[in-house]
Design goal:
single chain, seven-stranded parallel β-sheet, Rossmann fold, alpha/beta, 8 helices
Length: about 260
């Protein structure tokens, strides 16, 4: 169990009031971490944090609302986390958006900027904010939740895929630049997961059957099946892994 023990570690997880982010923040806390539950809605943050504290039987989580599109709110998120827990050991950049479905060449400038801003720039900002203290301690783990969409083209969510490919490169660059300080940066690349974010892809039975019929496991994943990877990457178990993308997709990309 020591390999996966996160006792004393402090983790920020963005977009952690539902779906993959909620599963990750809950599992990190269960493995001993002190966590920050963060999303745009304060009441949702308070609900999930309260739930975690009750289930863990200790003060394991604090709620800090934050809209990742605003740098000043990200700065406040980091400052409040340090004020509450004293440090940041693990950063999980999970929050993302995709307001457009359709051909990439037809996307509006506004939608393009929203996708790239939330899915790439906000992660860049957050990493800039937490890396200096990790360098000082010579320890830290940055985890970016990307997507298998960043590994292939799409006629429907092309710009989203571009943003997720950028996240892979961000993790690689951080791994190269900060590896000498014992800081690791990795991506998790989920396939189709049963979340509200991907509801359009799994709610319709015909579309779900089409999406899964050629995958080895013949089903979509669940948020908790992604959370274990985050625990691994945050803990001693993942101490020699950096600059990588952990693909968790039921075999979709190899079939």
């Amino acid at each position: 169990m020591d390999l996966f023990d996160l006792t004393g570690k402090v983790a920020i997880v963005t977009g952690s009031t539902k779906g993959i982010g909620e599963a990750i923040v809950r599992r990190l806390a269960e493995h001993g971490a002190n966590v920050v539950v963060s999303s745009r809605k304060a009441d949702a943050c308070e609900r999930v944090a309260g739930d975690i504290n009750r289930s863990c039987g200790r003060k394991a989580a604090v709620p800090i609302a934050c809209n990742i599109n605003y740098k000043e709110q990200l700065q406040s998120l980091v400052q409040q986390t340090r004020a509450e827990w004293g440090r940041i050991d693990v950063l999980v950049c999970n929050a993302a958006l995709n307001p457009y479905f359709g051909p990439q060449m037809e996307i509006s400038d506004e939608a393009f900027d929203k996708i790239m801003g939330a899915n790439v720039r906000s992660n860049h900002w957050l990493c800039q904010l937490v890396l200096p203290e990790m360098v000082e301690r010579k320890d830290g783990s940055i985890i970016i939740v990307s997507s298998i969409g960043g590994m292939k083209g799409s006629a429907v969510i092309g710009t989203y895929c571009v943003s997720k490919a950028a996240d892979f490169q961000m993790a690689r660059n951080i791994a190269v630049e900060y590896g000498p300080y014992n800081i690791r940066a990795n991506c998790i690349a989920p396939g189709l997961i049963k979340t509200d974010f991907a509801r359009a892809l799994w709610e319709d039975p015909a579309r779900l059957e089409y999406s899964t019929r050629n995958t080895p496991l013949r089903r979509i994943g669940l948020p908790d099946e992604i959370a274990g990877a985050a625990v691994f990457l945050a803990s001693k178990a993942g101490a020699f892994m950096s600059g990588q993308a952990m693909v968790i997709d039921g075999g979709a990309t190899i079939a």
